[in-house]
Amino acid sequence: MPISYRTLFLLEADAFSLVEIKLLDVQSDDPAEVYFWLQFEKANHTLHKLDFLSMNKDGEEQQREFRQGKLQFNQTSGTYTPAEAAEPVALEPQGTAQLPAELDDAIQRYFISG
């Protein structure tokens, strides 16, 4: 049975996508059980959970910090700086109404095999 979720943010780079989802079937007061940031590697269709550390919002600019790196974005652009890299990767925010099929498939596999 497919999991039910809502896409909150989707940011695209050439090699990967970053997506935040909210699970709709989980009843919990713990945000870590409901909200997930995931990195989708386009070349091999693998999905990795990002370990959330903190978030901030300054006007339209949003920031997220993960163990794996730092993300900054607004409605028109974004950057992700992996912890092991010195150079940030440019991201393009996308609409969240419909995810690419391969990304949705990876999310479904991730939570079903979980």
From TrEMBL:
This is Uncharacterized protein. It comes from Hymenobacter wooponensis.
